[in-house]
Structures are given as structure tokens and as C-alpha cells.
Amino acid sequence: MAPGRVPLSGDQAPLVRIRDLHFRRGNREIFSGLDIDIPRGGITAIMGPSGTGKTTLLKLIGGQLCPDQGSVEVDGLNVHELSRQDLYRLRMRMGMLFQSGALLTDLSVFENVAFPLREHTALPEPLLRKLVLLKLEAVGLRGARDLMPSELSGGMARRVALARAIALDPMMIMYDEPFTGQDPISLGVLVKLIRQLNDAARLTSILVSHDVEETNAIADLVYVISDGRVVESGDPARLTASGSEWTRQFMQGLPDGPVPFHYPAQPLEQDLFGEKS
Ligand SMILES: Nc1ncnc2c1ncn2[C@@H]1O[C@H](COP(=O)(O)OP(=O)(O)OP(=O)(O)O)[C@@H](O)[C@H]1O
């Protein structure tokens, strides 16, 4: 375990407990009996090939989608049995940072971060100002408070969105592809920030990402999902070294393995020199 990592305690109930989750979109079965535990206090990564349903899973956890069968519990509450009001309350405790985490373009950086506080609390202005500045300080952008979103780089915009996501001091935060489209420096900053925020604020983080290297660098636990189920889970180092052939191919980004490089086709010679089919 990397220095500073919060040891995942086995004796505490997981913050998120998913059992026998089934979900389909039209004819396509996205999940067919998914079981996942997200331990408190750590960073859990959900990985898997494109289209396996990682974003869908976050939406099921956040109660934006409803399972066909099975349950999703967050902090002991069955998300899909809550009244609208209780779901709304629970969502306030779940920060979300989606890839498209668009900032409100006609509001300054400060007002973007203040937005959830103005919406959900009745804090007096001086206190609200202090809180916003502290959140911006946590992401290194206190000095950028008066800028407009159009004046920010992509990496800065994502950090402002992160400050907004933690404005209400959530118990957990869900990141959907936070690294996509970032240059190496912004990427390094984001990776460090996600870890720091998790540990300093004693958050629980769920990270959905394709970026194996970055994700392995900060995750305490990785679930690899494919074809609607968990195919493997564990510590990132162990998974990379000793996972199944399929997991090794995915984690090491190998072009060939159980998932073949070539799309099924007739033999090349036949295509090149045989009769036209
Ligand atoms: N609103 C929708 N209506 C119908 N099908 C959808 C909808 N949203 C997603 N899907 C389908 O559900 C499946 C899972 O999508 P999802 O976005 O959750 O996958 P993902 O693992 O997050 O993919 P990626 O890694 O490419 O972002 C995909 O086949 C997608 O086409």
C-alpha cells in the first residue's frame, strides 16, 4: 500500500453494497447479477472495456437509474426504496464529477462553487464566502476565483468542478473518467488531488476510468467488470501481476490476449487471393 493510504477496514460495513444487480437497456443486458462492495475511506476503481456499463453503474448508485432486480445500498439505505425527499437528501451527500462536468458558463469560478451552497443551504454570506475560498484553496485555485469558465484551461475547469462537487462536504464522491483529455501535467495534478481530497476529507471515492496506469496509482481496490459481471477484484498491484489472462490483458493494455486484436474474419490469404465472397 502506498504511503498515506487509508487502510481499508474490513470490520466496517461497506459504504456501498450492491447485490445481484440486473439492469437492461432495451434488449441489451448491461448487468446480470453484479455484486460489489465499496469500502469506506478508500478509493475504489471500477474498470472495464468501453460500453460495459461503468457510467450506468454510477447512475444506479446515484439513484438516477433504477435496477430491474437486485439492490443498491448506500450508507445502509436502499437507494431505490427511498422517498423522493430522502433520495434528494442522500444525493446531497454524494458528490459527482462527470467527464462532461460542465461549469455554468455565465457564472464566475467563485459562483460556480457557491452554487450548491446557495441552492441547498441558507448560510450567511460571510460564512459561504469562507467555505468557497477553502474549497478553491483545496484544489489550488483560490487565486482564480474571479475568472470565468471560458478563461480556464481544461484541467483548471475540472478542478473547479471538483471544488463544486465537494462544496457540501459529501461523504463520497464519484468520478466518471476524470482524466480524459488531460495533458500529462494536469493529469498528474488531478491524480494527486483525488488522493489528497479523499484522505484529507476522509471521503470514500469511486473512480470510473479507462486510464489503467493513473487509476492503479491511486486506487486501493479495483473491480474489473465485463459482460455484466465482476470478473476480478483486488489490490491493483496484485491484479496486474496475478489476475486472469483477461484481466492481465486489460490491466496491462496488451493488444492481444483473450480479447483478440483481430475482429473475426476469414483467413487473410483467402481475402487477398481467394475468390470474392
Ligand atoms: N440513455 C441510453 N439509452 C440506451 N442505451 C444506453 C444509454 N446510455 C448508455 N446506453 C448503453 O448502455 C451501455 C453501457 O453504457 P455506459 O455508458 O454505462 O458504458 P461505459 O462502460 O461507461 O462506457 P465508456 O467506458 O465507453 O464510457 C452501452 O452499450 C450504451 O450504448
TrEMBL record:
It comes from the Bacteria. It comes from Thiolapillus brandeum. Signal peptide: none annotated. Residues 16-252 form the ABC transporter domain. The keyword Transport applies. InterPro entries: AAA+_ATPase, ABC_transporter-like_ATP-bd, ABC_transporter-like_CS, P-loop_NTPase. SMART domains: AAA. This is ABC transporter domain-containing protein. The lineage of its organism: Bacteria, Pseudomonadati, Pseudomonadota, Gammaproteobacteria, Chromatiales. Pfam families: ABC_tran (PF00005). Gene3D superfamilies: P-loop containing nucleotide triphosphate hydrolases.
